[in-house]
Design goal:
homodimer, mainly alpha, Arc Repressor Mutant, subunit A, two-stranded antiparallel sheet, 6 helices, globular, DNA-binding
DNA sequence: TCACAACATTTGCAATTGCAACAGTTGCAT
DNA sequence: ATGCAACTGTTGCAATTGCAAATGTTGTGA
């Protein structure tokens, strides 16, 4: 039996493939709510974190400012987020979630939960915990 | 101390963040060779697998046909891949790597190796193996 | 206090990507 | 054989994304 192609078992490769599948799964479920994954991430963050500026969101996701600007354009048009004047800076905006967004939140969290469950369904609780721990280590210690 | 934001430790979230960093790291290194990550993936596959059609490549990566078509346009322009007539079908092309591509291959494999090493530098050999095993399980068993 | 660098956000334009339609080829059931 | 659905690959056009410049604001050091 010939050897597996080297890339198939490489960690980077597996991570990228899984990320792509997660992306597709999340986008499919979010499309029903008219959201992209990016918008969803911003929305959830603002809901959890409370009022924050666009730059803060950008730093959190390592996303360029213009992407935040445009994503929020969409979320604002959907009535989920609003840009307020910042209390201490006239250049920054303070973003916060609307009632409508808060009403939507439970459904959003349910999506995250369901997708994560689908992802780990082949693993026992113990293995899932171990995987979570190892991934967290890599997230913190990787040199890239 | 208040609880961590729920999403920070979710497995899907960590995988997506790592994938993004891997993507950036690979693209930065590949840019020196004038390749995108997509082109690189196709190139490596053709080098390892030998002659194959565009549709076969597409199925392997779950990539749309037009993306393959355009990526190969670039690789062909760079003199790394060529489209031959397929011996048994007039609609399919047989793609294969040029000498130039084969000469480049060692440098390409070195990049993969280096990035994977950077990724797992915070893990011991045993932990890295365990992580690889768990990820492989998820790749095979996930419901998404 | 004034010049200047850094910051927060937006936007015009170019490059990239995705969708859908197209052109040609093949297999298969009638 | 022939009509049709499925397949292989390409392309025009629209949507999305990314870069870089613009606009206005703030902090800081001479």
């Amino acid at each position: 039996m010939r050897a597996r192609l080297s890339r198939e078992n490489s960690m980077g490769w597996m991570i990228q493939r899984l990320a792509r599948r997660l992306d597709d799964a999340m986008n499919a479920r979010l499309a029903e709510h008219g959201l992209t994954l990016q918008q969803f991430a911003i929305l959830m963050t603002v809901i959890e974190h409370g009022r924050m500026t666009q730059a803060e969101i950008g730093r959190l996701f390592a996303m360029p400012a213009y992407a935040i600007s445009r994503a929020i354009d969409g979320l604002e048009a959907d009535g989920l987020l609003v840009r307020d004047a910042h209390p201490s800076s006239r250049r920054a905006h303070q973003i916060h979630a609307t009632e409508k967004a808060l009403d939507m939140a439970p459904a959003m969290f349910a999506i995250v939960k369901a997708v994560n469950a689908d992802l780990t369904q082949g693993l026992g609780d113990k293995e899932a915990g171990e995987l979570r721990r190892l991934l967290a280590t890599v997230v913190e210690t990787a040199a890239i």
